[in-house]
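Posting this for the archive.
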Amino acid sequence: MSNILVTGGNKGIGLEICRQLARLGHHVILSARSEERGRAAVAILAREKLKVDFLLLDTADEASIRLAAKELGQRIQALHVLINNAAILPTWGGSILEATAAELHDTFVTNTIGPVLLTQALLPLLKAGKPSRVINVSSRLGSLHEMTDGWAGYGISKAALNAATRKLADALQPHGISVNVASPGWVRTDMGGESAPLPVEKGAQNIVRLVTDVPHSLTNRYLEEKGEIPW
């Protein structure tokens, strides 16, 4: 059984990732920035006979990250998997020519800086759990190779998350920690919208498989269900 932290676990892909990992018998810690919504998500899983713990964590707040890391360190001795799933999408579509300072700032803080700071804060627990994994949930919209206009703040923040993944992978490999970034695909959630082709169960499965099916030695990759995405 592995100790696994999932950020943004109160709804959508994050909640389904927690559900699937708990079904596999792992000790799952579901984090959310709202205690009310986070505990409501834990209660939903409890009604399904799945035991999941809650951790209050706002990945856009540096103080919250430090406090959550301290709290988690008092609960567990080692962390085996960190899934940086929490993200925001303030504007649906939208050209770079219309992107606001607030949109660019907020998406970058939550989608890029948050995962980096959280990984730093949890490094002692990840070292204690080695071989351990960090899985950053990204998107094809973050691929520089495929990038076009649209989804400005979100796409830029995910491209930056991909870059941070490569930096972290190189820095953490000597410590027995693999770091990969993965796209769940276009999923029908509040963020993805009703026209998305994939159900939430499939999107979550595309992330969970990095825990269950991918060797610890694999690191510094940009992955999707069918293989690798060009950076």
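The mean pLDDT is 93. The chain is about 45% helix and 15% strand.
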